[in-house]
Amino acid sequence: MDGGHRTRLVFVLCLSAAVFSGIFMGRHLVETFSLRIDLTENKLYKFGPTTNEITSALVNPVTITVLNSEEEYVVMLREILRKYASLSNLIDLRFVDPYENPLLMDHYSQQGLSVELNDIIVEGSFRLKRFSMEDMYLMNSGQTEIRALNAEQQLTSALIYVNDQSVSKVGFSDGHNEQPSSSLLKLFENNNFEIARGSISRLIQDQPSILVIAAPSRDFRRDEVELLQRYLMQGGSVLVFMGPMLNPLENLQELLEEWGIILGREVVVEQEGYTGNNPVNIVPMYAPHEINRYFVENRVFLTMPSTRSLYINPEAGSAYDVRAVLTSTPGSYGKKGFQFSTPAREAGDASGPFYLVLSSLRRITENSKQHNAKILVAGSRTIYADDLLGFSSYANADFLVQAINWLHADETSIFIPAKSIQLAPLNIVSSQALLIGILISIPLPLLILTIGIIVVIRRKRRV
Question: Does the pTM exceed 0.70?
């Protein structure tokens, strides 16, 4: 073997060694330090500041148990769970095959937990929370297609819940044809509230942190209104959704008016800020309010379809601090009576701006202790519709979480938007599609054929 061949051989061996060493070291670094680059379009594996703050603030250990072997588990969720474990030394991630560990299954059964293959159990110092694999995603209305990844919201809120000694309760009133959406209930559940539904008398016995009245169409009895008033005077918080309706709810409206909030008789129509080419689907303005501090730095907007006007009662006593939360623009107008043939502005329509969401706060001193009684009234029930709360382009869920935080003294609710896992479609017109088809079907095959002919001719010349 001459010197040239020997040099080339040494070079090839050194290059091979360098490549294999690089691969080995890279793999070691990835496994040791979780050095991964997120190249997904919507940054599915990148966590937001909320998750980083909560994981860095952990003081009690948390165990995340996945009921499947690590090799068999879904790759996307496996990587997300691994990243959670890398954020804090207090998070212990383990993959357990339930068929090989029947004692662990018995352990969960004894705690009243029914578990299945692929479930995720988050355990803390005070309680545990179970998730199915489906809980990590948002599905379409028919539950046939995955639309978005919701794992960060679920897991981060669970980190708070399992190490929180107290459990907050929310009561949804029943008996007046209330219409809470499944997404509204899920929003409270995701923020670690224990949900109860029932009559006002039964709910108030449990002293919930928040009482929700979700768009009733039947009036409350006088004794129920008295119970609501008593609950408020003990420092309770009430969230009321009241969309446009023909029949007035006199008893409930009387309570709200005492607290400084009047339900108007107009459907608000916008000339500028609206969505879906429908001026009734208004985009409200944020008023200076504690609820809206979040939106000073996060410039996102919500939509309120079919919203009734609200007014501040000038006859309410000075004990009530009534403030605007959301308003319409000065160019808005109101269609009186909730019935109209056209959304276009007509003679006699009331001029805006209007209040769309109002809050009322009363400070109550009892036995040398001060309580803050709060009411928040929204003039729309579609603000919490399933499609709007599941649509990350709108801030409806963000707003409701901030409202919950204001109503709830502990302010522990969080909202992390789900991340779409569907690829954005390539929008091209027909002429562009025709051009692409021509390029693929004619020039490209000709180029390949030409290159082949050139290669054959050169080989024959060498021979």
Answer: no
